[in-house]
Amino acid sequence: DGGITQSPKYLFRKEGQNVTLSCEQNLNHDAMYWYRQDPGQGLRLIYYSQIVNDFQKGDIAEGYSVSREKKESFPLTVTSAQKNPTAFYLCASSMGLAQSYNEQFFGPGTRLTVL
Amino acid sequence: AQSVTQPDIHITVSEGASLELRCNYSYGATPYLFWYVQSPGQGLQLLLKYFSGDTLVQGIKGFEAEFKRSQSSFNLRKPSVHWSDAAEYFCAASRGKLQFGAGTQVVVTP
């Protein structure tokens, strides 16, 4: 079945550590996205990538980094510079470029908790 | 600035009753409009979308939405709610970047 997978489902991090969240898609989509979800705030865009080896900052990129070495994969690293990383992280993908009309498909999410 | 507003943070509805979730947008030109649903601890699933044409859009799970340009609204409706419809619902709009409302939590009572 085509879809988006995220791992792990739950992740615990000590303060000062970097952690990497995995996102893989087999939908053959060009564009991929990372969102952060906090209660009562909807989804906020962290980074997005339109093609391999290219990515753009979203609204809240500080303290995060990404790579896009393969079309299928778009890992997100939460660095120690992110002051409040505890949140639910969602990965998404869409066909073509990050254009208005392209529906985004979402993965099941990773819940990150800083201890 | 572009924005998407969902005025209701939380709605409680009885099973079998009708449901309407409100969504207003503020864009210079009409954006593409979407409704997503999220079950607890899960990702988002697209319910329906509006690009142009017929202003009443049918979606999955018995949901529909009506686009009203004069009111800058895109309200979601379901005639008869089932217990499985308890979830969080997000309205989203796009003129390049997808922007989400804050969400409406729907609780269904027996």
Defining key terms:
heterodimer, A: 115 residues, mainly beta, seven-stranded mixed beta sheet, four-stranded antiparallel beta sheet, globular, B: 110 residues, six-stranded mixed beta sheet, 0% helix, 54% strand
Structure description:
The complex is a heterodimer of chains A (115) and B (110). Chain A has no helices and eleven strands. Chain A has strands at residues 4-7, 10-13, 19-25, 31-37, 43-51, 54-57, 64-66, 76-78, 87-94, 105-106, 110-114. In chain B, strands 2, 5, 6, 10, 11 and 12 form a six-stranded mixed β-sheet that branches. Chain B contains no helices and twelve strands. Chain B has strands at 3-5, 10-14, 19-21, 24-26, 32-38, 44-50, 56-58, 64-68, 73-78, 87-94, 98-100, 104-109. Chain B is mostly beta strands and 110 residues long. The interface between A and B is medium-sized, with 23 and 23 residues.
Secondary structure elements and their pairing?
The complex is a heterodimer of chains A (about 120) and B (about 110).
Chain A: E1 4-7, E2 10-13, E3 19-25, E4 31-37, E5 43-51, E6 54-57, E7 64-66, E8 76-78, E9 87-94, E10 105-106, E11 110-114
Chain B: E1 3-5, E2 10-14, E3 19-21, E4 24-26, E5 32-38, E6 44-50, E7 56-58, E8 64-68, E9 73-78, E10 87-94, E11 98-100, E12 104-109
Parallel strand pairs in B: 2-12
Antiparallel strand pairs in B: 1-4, 3-9, 5-6, 5-10, 7-8, 8-9, 10-11, 10-12
